[in-house]
Amino acid sequence: MGKDQELLQAVKTEDLLTVQKLLQRPRPGKAKLLGSAKKVNVNFQDTDGFSPLHHAALNGNLELITLLLESQAAVDIRDQKGMRPLHYAAWQGKAEPMKMLLKSGSSVNGQSDEGQIPLHLSAQHGHYDVSEMLLQHQSNPCIVDNAGKTPLDLACEFGRVGVVQLLLSSNMCAALLEPKKGDTTDPNGTSPLHLAAKNGHIDIIRLLIQAGIDINRQTKAGTALHEAALCGKTEAVRLLLESGINATVRNTYSQTALDIVYQFTATQASREIKQLLRDASAALQVRALKDYCNNYDLTSLNIKAGDVITVLEQHPDGRWKGCIHDNRTGNDRVGYFPSTMVEVISKRTGGDRSSMGSSGSVNSVRSSGSGQSAASAAHILHAQAEGVKLLATVLSQSAKAKEHLLEQSKSVDQPAAGSASSSRTSSQSGCPLHEAPPYDATATRKGEGPGEGKSSEAVVQWLSDFQLQVYAPNFVGAGYDLPTISRMTPEDLTAIGITKPGHRKKMTSEINKMSVTEWLPDQKPVSKTQEHTHTHTHTIL
């Protein structure tokens, strides 16, 4: 075996003494001795293109990396797959070797033959510290690999909660929450939400919704609901429906999520998912009471008495947007119609339909705050309580991520996510909602005034229904209760610190749906909870 191969083997087996011996420069006067004149090639590569530095980075051996770099090893040497030592160090996930390679000038955004940068590898494997270091060295989290995936996509796909939080807190990642051009035609078109839903990563779905991702974003396969339904992820389906995803969207093959589930075998998961999707679709369905036709308005929907319409949008002026699916042709007709022309098909009284006037219809469809009917509100609140338990089980991949999750990112499950110190002093659950009995959103009778302690709780409850409870202190601190929130404009929202356009848009649409008296809680939460809310609000304001 020649010296070059010997060096490679010694580095591979971490034989430090042999490496030192081989890398020592010949001493003056001894250079003429046979064999010692030939200098060892520190950049020798085997058939896979692996150099000694590749092996040292993969083993994470600091002493060997130092020795090789001092002996002029090429820091960005590429193997047969175009991977550099920095790629392997990121994959390995040890911070010190990474630091050394970066200090020696390794390119942080250099792509392998598969288009991956080191951040792709550290994100996929959940290495928090290393991902953080790469970001600090200007690693670009928006770079896509050959499969069209960003580091955030991979972290969401593989359930790396800590890294997802880290990436979402990077300003550059905000762009990734917007739909990519060509999403609907690109076969690889995907989104972090689709990948998290497909793999059933509940806590990541929550983080993405909280960060303001468009929940109804579509690819060729449909929305994230299609993915979760197809993969049998019951809890993900439940959470997406609670968060207001549109259950009636059809993918490019004209299938709703429910159509997809009918292709499943009769497993317990698919039975539950079918029920959830049936409830969600039924909650948004109305029946025409009379014919309606407006030839002067091109956006209007022509309807005949008895037509079943799926409601897509409800506007406060009573003009609703709906869709009629023609089973014969398979086509959908979409357009606007007056809500006074229809009755809500409600399951509240054992299938008995209540024929209400316009305002009644609006309220019954809106009462749960996410486009569900009043009938399923109690079920939704129960599901939310279940979801809360899931949050407690958020685990991350490294000690630092756990620390980070606990100290900085209580915002996932705290309406009042303040400074790290306020998080530490609070009890483990941290959220008034978690300790209070679940409210029945439909139980309050019209005309009841808000109780003193209830108004801030009601605000928290309203916000948590669409996953934005982190903003509770902004509203409570500025003195808003639900009746005053119902009159807020987007400018008012900006004024109290809601600066993310996606969040502002979501809130404005929820404000437009509001029917104030439905949100007053029925019971006062335990005093401990109130104490909790006040402490948090105080810390932040």
Describe this entry's structure for a reader.
The protein has helices at residues 3-12, 16-23, 52-59, 62-70, 85-92, 95-103, 118-124, 128-136, 151-157, 161-168, 192-198, 202-210, 224-230, 234-242, 257-261, 268-283, 358-366, 377-392, 399-407, 420-425, 432-435, 454-464, 472-477, 482-485, 490-495, 501-513, 527-540; strands at 285-288, 308-314, 319-325, 332-338, 342-344. With 541 residues, it is mostly helical. It folds into four domains: 1-107, Alpha Horseshoe (Serine Threonine Protein Phosphatase 5, Tetratricopeptide repeat), CATH 1.25.40.20; 178-281, Serine Threonine Protein Phosphatase 5, Tetratricopeptide repeat; 285-370, SH3 Domains (SH3 type barrels), CATH 2.30.30.40; 413-540, Transcription Factor, Ets-1 (DNA polymerase, domain 1), CATH 1.10.150. α10 packs across α19. The protein starts with a helix and ends with a helix.
CATH topology of the largest domain: DNA polymerase, domain 1
- The CATH superfamily of the largest domain bears the name Transcription Factor, Ets-1
Radius of gyration: 29 Å
Kindly report how far apart the N and C termini lie. 71 Å
Strand content: 5-15%
Q: Which strand order does the major sheet show?
A: 4-3-2-1-5
Per CATH, the architecture of the largest domain is: Orthogonal Bundle
**Based on DSSP secondary structure assignment, what is the total number of beta strands?**
5
Poorly predicted sequence stretches spanning 5 or more consecutive residues? 183-187, 347-402, 404-452, 518-541
The coarse silhouette is elongated
Number of domains: 4
